[in-house]
Structures are given as C-alpha cells and as structure tokens.
Design goal:
With 100 residues, the chain is mostly helical. The protein contains five helices and no strands. It has one domain: 434 Repressor (Amino-terminal Domain). Pfam families: HTH_31 (PF13560).
Length: 100
C-alpha cells in the first residue's frame, strides 16, 4: 500500500514538528537513544521524526515523545500550527453577497 503524497502544508508542519522535538530533546540534554528508551519507541523512529522523514507520525508516538520531553500536547500543537489559509475571497465567490 502506498502512502498519499502530502500537501505542502502537511510537509511544513512535519518539518516544524521535527524542529520543535529536536530542539526540546537537545535542550533536555538527553540523547535520542535515552528519549526513545524512556518513551518506549525505537531510536530509529525518533531519528526519523527529527530528520523530517516522518512528516505525520502516529499520535501516540508524538504523545510519548512530548511527555518524555515535558511538552504539553497543546503547546506542541500550537508550535506547529499554521495560520488558516483563505483560498476564497468574497469578491471572487459569487455566492457571497458583498453588497451593503
């Protein structure tokens, strides 16, 4: 089974997640091996996430890493959340009444 291609926003969020988790691990002074062992996941998974090769890691993997690194999921989500995109503009959408 092949995976779907990620849209640019998903890739960007994955890169931001990788950066945030790597920064938190380094700030903790712990190795990837130590964090992986404590979180109950493989060091290969930690490295894959940190290098951005896993743009959309499993929720429980992220939760385990966040817990080990002392980051709340709310804080982690806020640090990787992209601003909402507004692809539609009222003037370009005839179903939106812009008259006063």
């Amino acid at each position: 089974m092949s995976r779907r291609r990620l849209d640019p926003d998903a890739r960007r969020r994955g890169q931001m997640l990788a950066s945030r988790l790597t920064q938190a691990r380094r700030n903790s002074g712990r190795s990837a091996e130590a964090v992986a062992r404590s979180a109950g996941i493989s060091v290969e998974t930690v490295r894959s996430i940190e290098k951005g090769r896993t743009s959309t890691p499993e929720f429980f993997t992220v939760a385990a890493l966040a817990t080990e690194l002392g980051i709340s999921l709310d804080t982690l989500y806020a640090s990787v959340r992209l601003p909402p995109r507004s692809d539609l503009h009222a003037a370009d959408n005839p179903s939106v009444d812009t008259s006063d």
